[in-house]
Structure formats: structure tokens, C-alpha cells
Write a structure and sequence with these properties.
The chain is built from six helices and 19 strands. It has about 290 residues and is of the alpha+beta class. A hairpin with a 2-residue loop joins strand 7 and strand 8. The longest helix has 27 residues. The two termini are about 20 Å apart.
Length: about 290
């Protein structure tokens, strides 16, 4: 497919975020201010380079901030490129579900306190020129990343998760109680901190930090892990790998728990009488440009 029209989603930097909260920014230590300012400078320099490369390679470019990308339809573009980190990419994947995507990490740093590791991105400030040359030639592969879906009382929700889904209490200091139907067993978890479901792509992140073992994204499976289970209750399982043909069933034992896709704002709120089902989507993979 020849790429001609590109929509670039630009990350709102931390520096821009604090422009309306300068009283907060001014209370930061000088070292933290410096990191925020340097990250902002790197973002703006890369945006300039990005525009120049689009012109050099004769790509038609439209830019939009991540806060206003909902104003655009992905159908008008051949490719959606995010200029930011993994969070910017995940937000774009939510907004442009059927579009071809590519992420460019504008603030690459293996130290997450100073930048983004960019696990979901395909290029960096150091490789952007090579990436554009290969885009023009069509020298790239398109990967298909599996996504998770959710149903509440049998109704399919419009959101999909590229990385993970969280279900549990909205406030971190409150406990969660629910029943899970899986592997021909019913397990009641009381007093835990919720449950995280993951794709293979997301299994190297939150899921792994909670004690799960990462797995390949091309496998027809997904994973889950209970956060802070009460092991004294001797549950049959606290984590597991689920066949992609199977839905997990969760029934909240209290009203007010939330369901969040890729840590997206405005989560769904469930009632005690609701039934939640999580599964692996068969046809709605994220299409992502990658360079070998």
C-alpha cells in the first residue's frame, strides 16, 4: 500500500501540561524541572524534524495534539503516526481502531524517570530518517497485535485493549471483591486489589510487574493476574493463561468497581448485579508498521 496522507498525533508534554499549573511546577526540585524542560525541547525538535521529513519525502501531513485527535477520522489517512511515548500510541490505538498505526518515541530513555522506553513504538529520534526512507520505499512489515474486548451483561463494549484491562475498585486504597469463573472453577476473591488482564504485547508491562510471565503476542492466548490476593484463603489460582477461544466471567460482589482499557480515562462503572466477560478479539487486531 502506498502511503501518501499521514495524520501525526503529537504528545502533550509535561511542560505544556504544567503551563496552567505553574504554582505546582515552581515547587518542583530543579532536577525535576530540568528533566521536564529537556523532554519538552526534545519533543519540539523532533516535531520540526518530522515536518521537514514529510516534506522531503512528499507525504501530505496533518498534525493534531493528543487532546484533540477525536476531532479527526482515521478513514481520511493512510497512516496514523504518534509522536510521543507508549501512552500516546495506546490512546491513538483507542481512537483509530481500524487504522494503520506507527509510533515514534520522541523521548527515548531506558530510565523511565527521564523518558519513555517506547516498547510499542517503531522508531526514535535517532532512527527517524531511516524510518521515513523505508516508509517511502514500502520497506516495512505490518504486524497484527491482538486486542482484548469486554462485555457487560452480554453487550459488547466499543473499547479494545492493546495492552491490558483493569477491573476493580477505582480508589487504590479500597479493596475489591468478585467471583471468577474460569477453568471449570469458581473462585471468590475478597479483599484483593483488582484483576489485570493482558495481551501478549502488554505482558511485559503491568502484568509482568505483578508476577506474571510474559508471552509472545502472536500466540492465541491472553493472561490475567489478581492484584494483592489474600493467600491465606488458599485460592485455586491467582494468575493464569487463558485460551483465546475462551471468555473469562467475572461477577462483582459490590457496586462501583471500574473497568478500564489501557488505563483510559472515563472507565466503565459496574453494579453488583452485572456480569463482566473478557475475551481475545479474533478480527480486531491493531495493525502496526514495524521495521526489522
Amino acid at each position: 500500500m502506498a502511503i501518501k496522507n499521514i495524520l501525526c498525533v503529537l504528545k502533550t508534554t509535561g511542560f505544556e501540561h504544567y503551563q496552567n499549573r505553574k504554582d505546582v511546577f515552581n515547587r518542583f526540585e530543579e532536577s525535576r524541572k530540568k528533566i521536564i524542560e529537556e523532554s519538552h525541547h526534545q519533543q519540539k525538535e523532533l516535531e520540526k524534524t518530522f515536518r521537514e521529513l514529510c516534506e522531503l519525502h512528499s507525504f501530505s501531513l496533518t498534525t493534531v495534539s493528543d487532546r484533540k485527535m477525536h476531532e479527526h477520522s482515521g478513514d481520511s489517512f493512510d497512516l496514523i503516526i504518534t509522536l510521543g511515548g507508549d501512552g500516546t500510541f495506546l490512546n491513538a490505538a483507542q481512537q483509530f481502531k481500524n487504522s494503520l498505526l506507527m509510533g515514534i518515541n520522541s523521548d527515548e530513555n531506558l530510565d523511565p524517570s527521564k523518558g519513555s522506553m517506547g516498547a510499542l513504538t517503531s522508531a526514535t529520534a535517532q532512527t527517524i530518517e531511516q524510518a521515513f526512507a523505508r516508509l517511502e520505499k514500502g520497506d516495512y512489515t505490518i504486524e497484527h497485535w491482538k486486542r482484548l474486548y469486554g462485555k457487560i451483561n452480554g453487550k459488547r463494549l466499543p473499547d479494545l485493549a492493546t495492552n491490558d484491562i483493569f477491573f476493580g475498585a477505582q480508589e487504590a486504597y479500597k479493596t475489591s471483591s468478585f467471583e471468577i469463573y474460569w477453568d471449570k472453577k469458581i473462585e471468590a476473591f475478597r479483599g484483593c486489589s483488582g484483576i489485570v488482564f493482558t495481551t501478549g504485547m502488554g505482558s511485559t508491562s503491568w502484568y509482568k510487574n505483578l508476577g506474571g510471565t510474559s508471552f509472545a503476542n502472536d500466540l492465541p492466548i491472553y493472561g490475567f493476574v489478581i492484584r494483592d490476593p489474600q493467600l491465606a484463603r488458599q485460592p485455586h489460582f491467582v494468575r493464569g493463561i487463558v485460551d483465546g477461544e475462551e471468555e473469562m466471567i467475572i461477577k462483582p460482589l459490590r457496586t462501583g468497581y471500574i473497568l478500564s482499557f489501557d488505563s483510559k480515562d472515563n472507565p466503565y462503572v459496574l453494579k453488583e448485579t452485572d456480569e463482566l466477560r473478557i475475551g481475545l478479539s479474533k478480527k480486531e487486531a491493531v495493525r502496526v508498521i514495524r521495521f526489522e
